[in-house]
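DATA SHEET
Item: assembly model
Revision: 1
Owner: S.N.
Input lines:
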Amino acid sequence: MKKYLALFLVSILLLAACSSGSKTEEASGDSKDTNEITVWAWDPNFNIKALEMAKEAYKAEDSELNVKIVENAQADIIQKLNTSLSSGTTKGLPNIVLIEDYRAQSFLQAYPDMFYELTDSFKAEEFADYKIAPTSLDGKNYGLPFDTGVTGLYFRTDYLEEAGYKVEDLKDMDWNKYIEIGKKVKETTGKHMLTLDPKDLGLIRTMIQSAGSWYLKEDGVTPNLAGNEALKEAFETYKAILDADLVKPVSDWSQFVAGFNSGDVATVPSGNWITASIKAEESQSGKWTVAAQPRLSNNPDSVNASNLGGSSWYVLNVPGKEKAAEFLGKTFGSNVDFYQELNTEIGAIGTYKPAAEGEAYKAADEFFGGQKVITDFAAMTEKIPQVNYGLHTYAIEDILAVEMQNYLKGKDIDKVLEDAQAQAEAQIK
Amino acid sequence: MSKVNSIISYTVLVIASIVSIFPFLWMIVSSTNRSADVTQGRLLPGSHFFDNLRNLLDTVDLVPALMNSAKISIFTTVLALLIASLAGYGFEIFQSKAKDIVFNILLLSMMIPFAALMVPLFRMFGKISPVAPFLGIDTLTAVVLPTVTTAFLIFFFRQSTKMFPKDILEAGRIDGLNELGIFFRIYVPTMKTTYAAGAIITFMASWNSYLWPLVVLQSPENQTIPLLISNLGSSYSPDFGVIMTAIVIATLPSALIFFIMQKHFVAGMMGSVK
């Protein structure tokens, strides 16, 4: 009897806990001083610095506005946003928040009323095309595109030359050529070609986006795994790279960074934001070059450009939103000089097309043997195929990471993708 | 035979202590190395501790965060010990038919994960905010209140009270002490070891707590140490030497409290098991 009573009381408690938080209260937002806006972002060396520079640049427009920059880790921002938005409490929310492009749609679609439309605050056509789909919903722009995750193939020129190749050989190559060079590099220098973390399928993501394909169909919700030719070839390429023994396995970020800082690997296929980590090892100055990412060998749609990561700014629908939108529009949305500064100071490459004409983008980098790295990246950015990242990028990637291991153990590729499709459909409803 | 036994048991103990000590050793060694050395797994102490420390102090507001963590942990520990020991004492000493039912419900509440309570709690504090800003969202009070006592701690005190000699209570009553007097003058001094163990458990949990402070604290002035460390790792190219230095500093208070109260802690834990 006692047990039943206890169980009953606990159920009531749980029910009470679950039933709250269904409607949003506009009124609970606090009456903020309208001359102050708050921004949440992560990475002190990159996004936070960019914001501080934007704050300086904006002083010329409106010296009254106080921009309060709050640093939070990316995972922390997601946790805080989800808790606040799902409990319908706007108290304490910032005016502007940085969200990674892969995750943007899940926020926009789950809480459409909570974001402030930015369509009139900037000109979408002046930004790289591929940034627009993830940052907009129903034809309205909610995110102001920020940094590009344009990928490059960072290559150790000394290893390359030792293997008998020249930098020109890397131009617009495909993954078969990459494997061919890799085998030669391994043979002559004994170095691995790249590091891979079995939990992180970033390389697969960049491969399929280079062919204009994604884990999800264009609606952003239907899984697009079984029968996805680009994905199939990406899996096959991934296996071929492993079979050729070109990979040094790693299990986390620090080992990944150590892989190239220690000179153990010859290449780093990654987003341009890795530049800072590569340049951290000053003794390797002059020994690196950046080539375009290889394309898929048998896919006619695949181009030598792709994207990994990258984020955009969003304005939340709380008091102060107009000021916040204006702040973004006048800095990240249209200021060419500001983008030059961003580039010189922190190496950030924006997705604002007019910025590529500026001086800073044309500078030669001695670390990369005098290569005009930024010019090259900016040119590649414009070629990145546009895809809709949809709602479930990371959920599907968890499924694929497991199926990838099955595939590597010898399971048939079509069966692998069909099984992944079935799991994804069951999980995403 | 006994020699063989002791060799085996010492081997096991040595391996177990290496496994438990290694992370601490690595943490301390890494705090003296450059980021690039840390990623390459260097196990020898370097000479960059003060560089790391300077970089850390330059990039973040370490001292205010330490103060916030200290305030929260000390308040939580003092309040939690007071409330939980009163409750545990009451549950064990006083007789009532409803007592066991209430206690069972209390224990069942241990089964609800905090993640399930987080959104309703946040909503609750969000609603209080306009009425009573001093205990709403983004205040240190909001961090302390939900953790001010736990079912576990009440359970812990009730179990320890089981071996408290009840005859003393009678003696106290005969000598004219009221119930609160008995609690504070007789019970508290005799249960010192239990309090020490409870203090360590609560202080550590509070000092290290992450999820609730993360969602409820918004402004950087209110940041606690775990949040600060989480931010340090947020960059695309984190400086692992600096992060390790911050972790060493964050570990010191917990370690200090543990070493000071270690003797009592062991005694307290043994007591509650008996």
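QC remark: The longest helix of chain A spans residues 2-19.
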